[in-house]
Structures are given as C-alpha cells and as structure tokens.
Amino acid sequence: MKLTAALFALLFLLAGFSTAGEELSPPTSHDLGVEIFPQSRSLKAVDKITLPRAVEEAVFSLHRGLSPKSPDAQLSAVNPEGGKFLPEWLELWKVSLKNGQKTFTLEYGGEIYHELEAVGKEYARGFMATPGIISPEGAVLSSESAWFARFEGEGLTIFDLRVKLPDGWDAVSQGERVGASGGEVHLSSKKPQDDIWLVCAPFHRYEEKVSEVTAEAYLRTPDKALAQKFLTATAQYVKMYSSLIGPYPFTKFALVENFWETGYGMPAFTLLGPKVMRFPFLLRTSYPHEILHNWWGNSVYVDYSKGNWSEGLTAYLADHLMREEAGQGHEYRESTLQKYADYVAQKADGPLRGFVSRHGSASEALGYGKSLMVFNMLRLEMGDVLFKKGLAEFYVANLWKSASWDDLKSAFERVSERELGWFFDQWVKRTGAVALKVENVREGEGELFATLLQIQEGEPYRVKVPVLVTCEGGRTVWESLEMTGKSLDFTLKLPAKPLRLDIDPEFDLFRLQDRNEIPPALSGVFGSKEILVVLPSKASKELFEGYGRLAKNWQSSGEAL
Hints:
The chain has eleven helices and 30 strands. It has 561 residues and is of the alpha+beta class. The radius of gyration is 26 Å and the shape is globular.
C-alpha cells in the first residue's frame, strides 16, 4: 500500500520496528466490537485489549474526540514529547494497569471524517487520499485513522472484529470472514498484522472457493459478469505466485470497489476505484501487482528504516513479468530507464536504501524503477533456478517478520553459496547508474575487437554486460562480458562478417541510456525542473490564451520531487 507522510511519521512515533529478519515481539490482541453510523459519520467501539506482556503503564494513540474510558484501568491524556511529530487529528493517552495486568477494556466513540485531498501535485500521477472517513457513501479506516488503539513500541497485531452495520451494508478487513448475520459481520486474523483495516459500504458480495483460498468481490452495484472476471483472475494469480514463491499466506483475497479512485493493496484485499477497476487492461497490470503484495509487504513486512524493497520486487514479478510474458519485457525496461533519466538522474537521485514510499514520479522512478532493474540484474547474475530458490528462501525465512535488503542478500547467498555483498552494496547503497560507451571497434579475420568504457562519475561498477553482434546471413552472436574496471578490451569470435554491434540491446542493465537510444517523450518535459515555453505570438487570441493557460498549469503542478 501507499504510505502518506503523516502515516509514516506516526508509524515511527508509535510502532516498534523489529530488527530485520528477527522474530517480532508477541502481537497485541484486539477483541473489537464496532458499530458504524454513516449518517453521523461516527462509530462506537468496545475493545478488549491484551498486551504482549504485563506492564504498569502504556501509551497509545486514538483519534481526537473519541473520548475513551475504561471500566478496569485508569486513563489519562498525554502531551507528545518535544520534537515528535503528531498529526493534528490524534491524541495520546496513557493507560495505568494493576500489577501483573495485561488485559483491559477500552470504550469509545465519535466522529471520524476527513475530506479527500490530492496527494502529490504533479500531473504525471495524482490521486486522492484521506487519513480516514466514515460517510453515507462508505467507510475506510486504518491505523492512520487511529480508529483503534496503537501502542508506543507496539509490534504486530492479531484481532477478532465484529462490525454492526446498517441494512444492506457489508464489511471487509484483512482477516478471515468468520460469518455474517443480523447486520453484523465477524472478521478475524490470527496471523500477525501491522494494521487493522476496516472498509464498509453498501456492497454486493460474490465469492468462489479456490482450493484453500476464497476469492471474493465486493461491488457497489450488482454485476455478476464483472465479479466473475476478478474471481477467475484471483484464482489464476494466487496459483501462479504460490508456485513461484510459496503458499499464499491468507485464506482469502477480495476485490473491493471504493467510492473514490484508489489503487491500494492491503493484506488479503485490494481497494480499487470505480473507474480504474473497469479498465479492460487492469486484470493484466495492476491486479496481479496488488495480489503479489500479499507475499511482499503484507506477510513479509518491510523494515522501512533500511529502505523499501517490496515495491520494486512486486513491480518486477507483476508488472514487468506480465509484459515479459507478452514479449515486451525489453520495452518495459527501456521505459523504466527513460523515466529514471527524465525524473531522477542529476535531479533527485539517492540510494535505494533511502526509498520508503512513492510521492511523485521521481520517487517512483527510483523506488520502483531502479529497484526492479536491480532484481532483473540479480536474476541474470543468479540464473532463473537459483533466483526462484532465493525468492522462496527469502519468503520462508521472513514470513510474518520485518525484512530488509540485507535479508534479501542473506537469502540469495544461502541458496547460491556465494558472497553477494558487492552486488547489494553497489546497487542498494550507492547512488547512480552505470553509463557505457564503446569505441575502437575494428574487424579482424573471423573476429571483432572493441573497447568498452564506463563513463559515469565515481568508481566502476561490477557488471555483466550483454553484447550482441549481427553478422551476414542473419547469424547472431551473444556474449556476456564481465566488467570490473572503467575499461575493458574484448575480442569476439564470429561465424561471418559483422554488420552491427549492440551493447545491452535488451536493456537488462540499470544504466544511463545513450542520447541516441532515447525516443522523444513528454516525460522529458514533465521531469524537468525548468521549462521554457515559447508562445505563438501570431496565433489567434483564443489559441494564444490557451497555450498560456497550459504553461501556467505546468508551472503550478510541477513534479513533486
């Protein structure tokens, strides 16, 4: 899922981040009864909370105005410590417990309603978001909404959730759907979670059992044919990724239609906007991406303090893989490199270990684009068999734990019995990309001689450079050149007279493209910090004013770096 700045700050303020790859502390348990009141934009809740261990006191956050009280513990308001950021809609509370007590009850209620606001001002990718909302159209609540108590130093959570709803409404969370009757839905998660989501609306529910997994669709208007498309796709992708990585970690996956445009992937469900979910290409693009997040990010968690590896790995095994299967993988990688050149290189670059979440095209080109190219190079370095084994090893070793790039390195080192620190150091900890140039190309009898250069600033990268020679008669020669320095003289044996030499023709390396490789694209304009617009002074007044409005729009909506 996407992290807003407020949510990310809150996570660091309140949540306890584990050491990557190590067992997390025992989860906090919530036994929650909630009633939703759409017309008053409010809820009422009773939460029986069991902390991981007995404590004398604990600090938790809750949405402002919910007025918590407890029949078996003492509560008092807390002011945040100096220097700590706290979103304005949150309050901190301290619960004081008796000696040896770790279970107590919270009772609270009140309004949670935040207007939808644009996130990111650049036109290349804008979307609406809210910390939390209860309205007659529906309710979308998460830890950012602070609709349930989050404790300072808390790790993960298990929950049992009963939701009382208006007639015709239904509810979805990441938990298993235990049952529904009498206007109440029962949801439960015994697997440790880093959030408790609650999405409610007047839904029409569809389901289909697929082996041990239930495929679900929640639509705002009846549409059996559309629901069936998603149920079938769910079964297909769950089976595919289970074979590639390991068993699906949940008991269900649900397609949930939102009442505004979103593209969120949460544990065991995805929340999609009413327009985007009806795009015909979505089932081959965004949908597998959201399902795959149930392995990467939603069951193997991200240690954000050491960088977000999840988005790049998910993009590589979903968006990129779908294009690869269609024979268009090289085009996808070419576009990825171009976006990096347009939005990041020389402008907003940084190491992958510093990427946390997407907040514009520049951060996307780095955290998604560069990251997926790193996984492409790792696959080429390891070979398909070991790459797949490494994914499975990483998954098994870190399921229900917080993991980092270091844990990825360790998993691939175990399956390959190779030291891979050099690879992850240069691509995860270092800023920039390799830049290649070929010169001194000359032909000998049955041979081709050339010099390959790395022309980027700084130290050379250790890379395997794919080289393709096209010869007379349509014959081709592929070679992979191991390059560790700034210069490499190489000789290729050929079956016929060479006609053409291509360096990395399939765009497999994370590199700066040569200017002659880059086709004209508007992203080159959108990614620029400074744009010169020349207006046609002799054009009609209407056309001239139109160009002027376009220029002002570009200026006011510039790239969110």
